[in-house]
Amino acid sequence: QVQLVESGGGLVQAGDSLRLSCAPSEPTNKIYTMGWFRQAPGKEREYVAGASWNGGRTYYSDSVKGRFTISRDNAKRAVYLQMNNLDPDDTAEYLCAAREGTAVGAGTRYDYWGQGTQVTVSS
Asked: How many angstroms separate the Cα of 123 from the Cα of each of 13, 26, 88, 114?
C-alpha cells in the first residue's frame, strides 16, 4: 500500500497555469501507474490524466486534452500535472492516484489515493 501526497494547488485567474505534484509519503521501490482525478462540488469524480510507469502511454480526458500535461519522475516516484490556460470550469479538488496494473485508459480503476489539493480558477 502507498500513501500519496499532492501539492501545488491554489487560486489563480482564468488563463493562468499551475503545476500539481504528487509523490508517496514514504520511500517505495515500486513504480506505479499514476493518474490525476478531479471532483467539483455536486459533480462526479472525473479521470483527467494518467501515465504508465515509464510515461510511454498517457491518457487525457477530452476536457483537458491540449491544455494539461502529465509527466513523471520515477527517480522521485513523483507525478506532475501541468495545467495551462486554466478555465473556471477547471475549479475542483484534484486527487492523485496510483495503481499496480498497467492500464491507463478511460475507465481505469486506481488502488491508492491522495487527500487532494484544491484548484480554484476565477474569471
From this structure: 6, 38, 6, 28
